[in-house]
Amino acid sequence: MPNISIEVSYKELLKDVKEKVRKAQVKALVTVNQHLLIMYWEIGKLILERQEQHAWGSKVLEQLAIDLKKTFPDMQGFSRRNLLYMRKFAAEYPDLLIVQQVVAQISWSHNIRLLDKCSNKEERLWYANKALEHGWSRNVMVMQIETSLYERSGKAITNFQEKLPSAQSDMAQQMMKDPYIFL
Question: Rounded to the nearest 10 degrees, how much is the dihedral formed by the CA atoms of 151, 153, 157, 158?
């Protein structure tokens, strides 16, 4: 009988260690992503500043992309197109604190889609927060953008406030905001 107890105990130990390793891996990925996005913001800010100072055109970004690829051959993300996104990223979020608090918490591909599909910062930040809150993949977030969740959220016209007691009208109004109800 003692062998069974040792085997069960070992399986629990193995399960617990695997869980710790997986949690640490996720934390490491999140940290790396945050640093990567802050670096992209800083590069974008440098590009913005230098283009303003020297009136550089798009040829400079082409050359910068070539030189960065030569300097960092094992790194991806230094294409001309991505440098343009970095520039736009810094232009749309001039405050690094916003980047650190919200948009650095989601992936670069999430941020690119937000830059492409949302017309203003308020909307982008709303979707970024919702992606964090609900754990949306990039594709789910894009679907929510394309189905205008931001515009629909909480803006359904109802007569709840006139017809229901206060507590019920608030709850009914909140239910109307749920993206999974009344699409």
Answer: 180
| C-beta separation of 98 from 37 below 8 A | no
Phi and psi at residue 86, to the nearest 5°: -60, -45
Each residue's pLDDT tens digit, 62-111: 999 999 999 999 999 999 999 999 999 999 999 999 888 889 999 999 99
DSSP H or E stretch at residue 145: helix 138-146
Report d(CA 154, CA 175) in Å as an integer: 9
* Strand segments (E) across the chain: none
- Please give the DSSP secondary-structure letter assigned to residue 181: S
The burial of 110, by beta-carbon neighbours within 10 Å (0-12 exposed, 13-18 middle, 19 or more buried), is given as buried
Asked if residues 90 and 44 have their Cβ atoms less than 8 Å apart, the reply is yes
- Does residue 154 contact residue 181 with C-beta atoms inside 8 Å? no
**Token output for 81:** 């197109």
Q: What is the pTM of this model?
A: 0.75
Residues 6+ apart with CB under 8 A from 124: 92, 103, 114, 115, 118
Please, are residues 114 and 124 in contact by the beta-carbon 8 Å criterion? yes
DSSP 178: -
Tokens of 7: 């085997």
- The two structure tokens encoding residue 16: 């617990």
**Residues 160 and 172: beta-carbon distance below 8 Å:** yes
